[in-house]
Amino acid sequence: MKFSSFHSSDDLQQMPEINVVPLIDVFLVLLVIFMITAPVIKTAIEMGLPSAQTATADPSQGITVKILPDGTVWIDDERVSIRAFPERFRDIYSNTGPGGNFRPVFLAAGEEVPYGDVVTILDELRVAGVEDLGLLTQKE
C-alpha cells in the first residue's frame, strides 16, 4: 500500500494500488513460451538447396517461393503452376503488409531446377514490385 498526505492534513490516507509484478511475470513466461514454440519450419518440401557459409535469413518473416524441378511453384504453403504464378503471387503480395509495408520474399530453388524457371520467377517477382528479395541456401 502507498501512503500519502493531502494538502494540509496530517492524516495518512491509504491509496490502493494494483500490484502488477505478478502479471508482468506471467506475460514474460508466456512470451518465452511463444518464442520457443512459434517458429514454424517452412521446409516441409525436401529440396536440395545450394549451400553457403552465411545462411542467416529468417524466412518465417516473409513470403517463401519454392521452385521444384517438375515446374511447380509453392507460395508459402500453396501449390501453383508456373503459368498461374504471376497472378496468384500478386494477389498474395499486395495483401501482405499494413500501410504498404511489404514483407520480404525468399526464393528457394534446388540445384536441379532449370535455370530458365528461376529466371522466369525472378522476372515475375520484379514485375510484381518485389524489392526485398533473398535467396535461400543451406548453411555449410
Explain this structure.
With 140 residues, the chain is an alpha/beta fold. It has 2 domains: 2-37, no CATH class; 51-139, Nucleotidyltransferase, domain 5. Helices cover 29% and strands 24% of the residues. The chain is built from 3 helices and 9 strands. The protein has helices at 21-37, 85-94, 115-127; strands spanning 2-5, 12-15, 51-52, 63-67, 72-75, 78-81, 105-109, 133-135, 138-139. The strands form 3 sheets. It has a 5-stranded mixed sheet with strand order 6-5-4-7-8, with helices on one face. A two-stranded antiparallel ribbon has the order 1-2. Strands 3-9 form a two-stranded parallel sheet. It is elongated. It starts with a strand and ends with a strand.
Output the keywords.
elongated, alpha/beta, 140 residues, Nucleotidyltransferase, domain 5, 2 domains, two-stranded antiparallel sheet, 3 helices, 9 strands
Please state roughly what percent of the residues sit in beta strands, choosing from under 5%, 5-15%, 15-25%, 25-35%, 35-45% or over 45%.
Answer: 15-25%
Largest sheet: 5 strands, mixed
The number of helical segments is 3
Major β-sheet strand ordering = 6-5-4-7-8
The assigned structural class equals alpha/beta
Q: What's the CATH topology label of the largest domain?
A: Nucleotidyltransferase, domain 5
